TrEMBL record:
InterPro entries: Acyl_CoA_acyltransferase (IPR016181), Alpha/beta_knot_MTases (IPR029028), GNAT_dom (IPR000182), tRNA_m1G_MeTrfase_C_sf (IPR023148), tRNA_m1G_MeTrfase_TrmD (IPR002649), tRNA_m1G_MTases_N (IPR029026), tRNA_MeTrfase_TRMD/TRM10 (IPR016009). SUPFAM superfamilies: Acyl-CoA N-acyltransferases (Nat), alpha/beta knot. Its EC number is 2.1.1.228. Belongs to the RNA methyltransferase TrmD family. It comes from Georgenia halophila. Homodimer. The keyword Membrane does not apply. It comes from the Bacteria. This is tRNA (guanine-N(1)-)-methyltransferase. PANTHER family: TRNA (GUANINE-N(1)-)-METHYLTRANSFERASE. Keywords: Cytoplasm, Methyltransferase, S-adenosyl-L-methionine, Transferase, tRNA processing.
């Protein structure tokens, strides 16, 4: 690849004589040429700038000088794909993906501006031409004094992708930000000898020799770092590239994968009075989906109107006998739970058959646990159940910690039963009841809350 850099400070690029880029130049893999813009000035002061039209501070670089320089440099090269790279704070953010694209070109010409920048007609002039392609790029949202630093970055980032520059091309695939398997995540932490430094040991797993565990640990570290430092990258992750382990790490940090699309930040929090309308809307959207087919639409609509309206939720949110948890995204509520607490420590569940199946007291009912279809199987329901367990396990009724959480779920709803089972609920027996004229069969499941010896739940 040939790269030409034009600058009024050509010495700035001397660093590219060093290290891998220097070797690539000596090996002929990279033909890097640095030009002094002043070679294309015509006055004895070698002037490259002038005052800005429209007034204002500073000086602007002249288009005619740049035009002569770029016409000459662009004219030197053969055919093939040429990209004119114009570093500017107002450019598109340079990313590994755009670097990978630049690395497929035959030639790059990088124009380093100074002062207040280059007259805007230069970019327009070359962008209007058949060739070269023009890329206005920025390194990031901070202000530098010129384009030279960006030229150093572009040359190093592109050169190391050229065949034969980096010793083990395998490591390129492994790198973060790239399109390789680790693409889109930050690097995991790395360690080397001594195994103990400043009282700090190396993580045991890295000394285990167990490659599978090491790979999993490194992946988890990369995910956790990315969640903490670059949540924007999590939103850009390709769901198909996330395995079960990845999804578990993301879920632990509040990121869940909906049925369609990229990971979403879901916050689980206690319901508050302002949630009533959104909860009623969510309940109306989710309750019918969990109803067995034999239940008629009319019965369902009647039940929703009677029991799941905004007014009912407003009462749940302000009445201490009820606890509401909600799962919320930036787009609104996607899940909720409702727990009914006993008024007294010995108050039995309101259905006799349940009271017999759930003897422990105080007993609280997980009355509602619903998640929008797009988030079913994403782990959001599990996060809600974990929040419910933590919240209810911390509640005393007449000074006695709530001993058990019980729920009734449709016997035919295998997914729900499996989900509750995964979170510690065990089936304690059937529960039969009527909806209108329709006989229904639920299973009752229960989760013991009070600490057994060695059980650290409390
Ligand atoms: C090119 C002139 C300086 C910028 C007045 C300070 C890139 N990420 C980046 N930040 N800054 C640059 C950059 C700065 C440049 C030039 C790139 C040419 N300046 C100007 C506008 C405000 N001075 C950059 N890539």
């Amino acid at each position: 690849m040939r790269v030409d850099v034009v600058s009024i400070f050509p010495g700035y690029l001397d660093a590219l004589d060093l290290s891998l880029v220097g070797k690539a130049r000596r090996d002929g893999v990279l033909d890097l040429r640095v030009h002094d813009l002043r070679d294309w000035t015509t006055d004895r002061h070698r002037t490259v700038d002038d005052t800005p039209f429209g007034g204002g501070a500073g000086m602007v670089m002249r288009p005619d000088v740049w035009g002569r320089a770029l016409d000459d440099v662009l004219g030197e090269g053969g055919s093939g794909r040429t990209v004119l790279v114009l570093p500017t704070p107002s450019g598109e953010r340079l990313t590994q993906r755009s670097v990978e694209d630049l690395a497929t070109a035959d030639r790059l010409v990088i124009a380093c501006g100074r002062y207040e920048g280059i007259d805007a007609r230069v970019a327009d002039h070359y962008a209007g031409a058949e060739a070269p392609e023009v890329r206005e790029i920025s390194l990031g949202d901070y202000v530098l004094n010129g384009g030279e630093v960006a030229a150093l970055v572009v040359v190093e980032a592109v050169a190391r992708l050229l065949p034969g520059v980096v010793g083990n091309p395998e490591s390129l695939v492994e790198e973060s930000h790239g399109t390789g398997s680790k693409g889109g995540l930050l690097e995991y932490p790395v360690y080397t000898k001594p195994a103990e430094w400043a009282g700090r040991p190396v993580p045991d797993v890295l000394l285990s020799g167990h490659h599978g565990k090491v790979a999993r640990w490194r992946r988890d570290q990369a995910l956790e770092r990315t969640v903490r430092r670059r949540p924007d990258l999590i939103e850009a992750l390709e769901p198909a590239e996330l395995d079960r382990g990845d999804r578990a790490v993301l879920a632990r940090h509040g990121w869940f994968l909906p049925a369609e699309g990229a990971p979403v930040r879901v916050r689980v929090r206690p319901g508050r009075s302002g949630d009533a309308d959104a909860l009623a809307e969510l309940a109306a959207a989710t309750f019918p989906l969990a109803c067995p087919p034999e239940l008629g639409e009319a019965d369902i609509a009647a039940f929703v109107a009677e029991n799941l309206g905004a007014a009912r939720f407003a009462s749940y949110l302000t009445d201490a006998r009820y606890r509401v948890q909600v799962a919320e995204t930036s787009g609104g509520l996607v899940g909720y739970t409702l727990v009914v607490l006993p008024s007294t420590a010995e108050e039995p569940p309101d259905a006799e058959d349940v009271a017999a199946l759930v003897p422990d007291r105080p007993a609280a009912e997980l009355s509602k646990c619903y998640v929008l279809p797009a988030f079913q199987g994403s782990g959001v329901a599990g996060a809600l159940l974990e929040a419910v367990r933590r919240e209810v396990a911390a509640i005393d009724v007449e000074g006695r910690p709530v001993a058990v959480l019980w729920l009734g779920t449709n016997a035919a709803n295998r997914r729900a039963r499996a989900g509750y089972g995964k979170h510690g609920y065990t089936t304690v027996g059937p529960r039969r009841f009527q909806v209108g004229e329709q006989p229904m069969e639920d299973v009752v499941m229960a989760l013991g809350l009070t600490a057994e010896p060695g059980d650290n739940r409390r």
